[in-house]
Structure formats: C-alpha cells, structure tokens
Amino acid sequence: MALDSDTRAVHAVLLAAGASRRFGDDNKLLAEIDGVPLVRRMAERLLASRIAGVIAVTGFEAERVRKALAGLDIHFTDNPNFAEGLASSLRCGVAALPEGSTGAMIVLADMPGISAALIDGLIGAFQQEACKKIVYPTRQNGDQGNPVIWPARFFEDLKKLNGDAGAKSLIGAHDADTHGVPIDDKDSLSDIDRPEDLADWRDGKTF
Predict the structure, then answer these.
(1) FRET partner for 20 with CA separation of 20 to 30 A, picked from 31, 33, 87, 97?
(2) Which uninterrupted H or E stretch holds 175?
(3) Is 3 helix (H, G, I), strand (E, B) or coil?
C-alpha cells in the first residue's frame, strides 16, 4: 500500500515498539489469537479498512515483530529510544508520515477487538468533522478509547510529547476540539496487558 497523499486521507501509525513489561517474559505482540500474532491481527484489520497507509513503529525485538508482519503492505520506522516510553514511538511514527497527511490514526497493536468496520467508522467521523477534530471511540460510560485520529494541525504537538502516557494530556487540553464516537461493544476497545487478559480473550470472557 503506497502512502496516499489525498487531502482527506488518514494514515495509521501502528505502535509496536513496547517491551510488554506487564506481560512477563514474552512479547505480547507476538502472542497468538487463532494462530495470528496480535500485531499482525491489527495490521490486517487496518489494511482491510479505508486507511490510506500503515506505518509500523518497531523497537523492542524489532526483527521478530517485522517477521510477524512479513508480506504485508506496510511501512516501517524504528524507534531506538523505545525504552523511554510510548511518547517516543508516537514521535517516530508522526515524523514518518508522508508530507501533506491530513490525519494520523494512532493505533495500539494489542487490541484484538478492533475491526475494519470500527476503523472505517472513525475515519468517516473524522471526515465529517472536516478533518479538523480529534476523533476517538468512547466507551459506554463516555470514557475515551483507542485508536485516536489526530488532525495534521496537532502533529507538531505530538512530536513534543515525552514519557509513557501517550497523548492523553494533549487530548485533555483540547477538549473542545474532540469528537467521540460511541461504541456499544466494550470488548472492541479492550487491550491485552497481562497473560490473564489473553487467556480471558481466548476463552471468550469480557474484561
């Protein structure tokens, strides 16, 4: 997939550089569901959607992660400073976006319930807001979920983030510039942090 420069295009930044510390000794992104590594499962959902292009940010066990994504039409950028926290990968991914990008969907690779339809719904909402608002899914209680689409006007702010909290503080500072898309199925927004989470998902349990 070529990185589209269409003025209404949204590109995905797939964050796949973390060390999965809460998952124990294994890399959770390589853990399998139905025989497919988590990171590949997410990449395939993105490629099945209306996303204009996918940039995967690698870091921890980069070679193994790239091997898990082999054969997919995505682009890679490496984050040598992944141990500094999530913000370092955000900076790398945003810096790798093609010139003229209208929006960037920041995607966590450990969310097995994300579907191509959900991704398309977020892209549609972003375009309905003239590609000017921060768009994200909301849980039944109104809390913000992931993935989040960022308009180009925030790219420079994203490049200045530090630490392991991602862009939550930036969202909070621009509440008037956000648009939440309600999602009824709470499992769609679940992420895998611990081995127990993966076991529950495989068993069909909610968490």
Answers:
(1) 97
(2) none
(3) coil
Domain 10-188 has CATH 3.90.550.10: yes
Alpha helices by DSSP H, listed for the chain, are: 38-47, 62-68, 86-95, 116-128, 155-158, 168-173, 195-202
Q: Is the pLDDT of residue 1 over 60?
A: no
Tell me the β-bridge partners of 108. 15
Which positions ≥6 away from 64 have C-beta within 8 Å?
27, 30
Q: What is the per-residue pLDDT across 44-68, written as a single tens digit (0 to 9) for each?
A: 999 999 999 999 999 999 999 999 9
Q: How far apart are CA 166 and CA 113, in angstroms?
A: 21
**pLDDT at position 205:** 64
Q: Is 31 helix (H, G, I), strand (E, B) or coil?
A: coil
d(CA 22, CA 35): 22
**Whether 85 contacts 43, CB under 8 Å:** no
Contact indicator for 146, 106 with CB cutoff of 8 Å: yes
- d(CA 78, CA 58) in angstroms, rounded, equals 5
pLDDT tens per residue across span 97-129: 998 899 999 999 999 999 999 999 999 999 999
Domain definitions of the chain by residue range: 10-188
pTM of the model: 0.92
Dihedral sign for Cα atoms in the order 134, 192, 143, 127: positive
Q: Contact, 73 vs 47, CB < 8 A?
A: yes
Angle between helices 38-47 and 116-128 (to 10 degrees): 50
Judged against a pLDDT cut of 80, whether residue 7 lies above it is answered with: no
